[in-house]
Amino acid sequence: MFFNIILYIAGDLLIFLGKNSGVCLLAGLIITGLGIYGIFGVTFAMQPDVIDYSEYKKNASVAGLIAAFQGFFVKGGMGLTSFIIGAFLKNGGYVANAVQTEKALSYIEICFIWIPVVLCVLIAVCTYFYKLDSMRGEMTKELEARRNAVSDKRSVSR
């Protein structure tokens, strides 16, 4: 995950440093694309850990509820983010299909370079404190034991 975050930030910095270079823009977009795919991939791979942790702590599986919440918050977050970016750019004086003012260009840079960099740093900090990986072995062993006990009870009652 940290490699992907560094990759994404490096791509954004390449875009920023090579502002007037089409090659830097294209290379930066490719690099950020590779970084974001890794970040998204890992976040979706974390979902089963959260589901197992919930079952481990609560002794009940709520996989559907967790998946539904994740879908809801991803879609809601995309909608809210689009609104916030639009409002921010409007505040900066952005006008579609027109030559942009310096202020508008500055706001565009903030939206598409600096806010994502800050968010990547926040993701890195949150990931650093993510401790379910270290609990995975213990959780798996306990959950398998519980599931086997339930399976054994069902077999006996038939």
3D structure, described in words:
With 158 residues, the chain is mostly helical. It has one domain. Helices cover 85% and strands 0% of the residues. It has five helices and no strands. Helix 1 packs antiparallel against helix 2 and helix 1 runs antiparallel to helix 4. The longest helix is centred in the first third of the chain and has 37 residues. The protein starts with a helix and ends with a helix.
Major sheet attributes? none
What's the count of strands?
Answer: 0
Total individual domains: 1
Task: Provide the low-confidence segments as ranges.
Answer: none
The secondary-structure class comes to mainly alpha
Q: What percentage of residues falls in helices of 4 or more residues?
A: over 70%
| Tally of contiguous helical segments | 5
Rg measurement, Å:
22 Å
Distance linking N and C termini: 47 Å
State the order of secondary-structure elements, H for helix, E for strand: HHHHH
- Overall pLDDT confidence: 90
In short:
The chain is mainly α and 158 residues long.
Descriptive tags:
mainly alpha; elongated; 158 residues; 0% strand
Write the layout of secondary structure elements.
Blueprint lengths: L1 H16 L4 H37 L4 H29 L10 H27 L3 H26 L1
Helix pairs in contact: 1-2, 1-4, 2-3, 2-5, 3-4
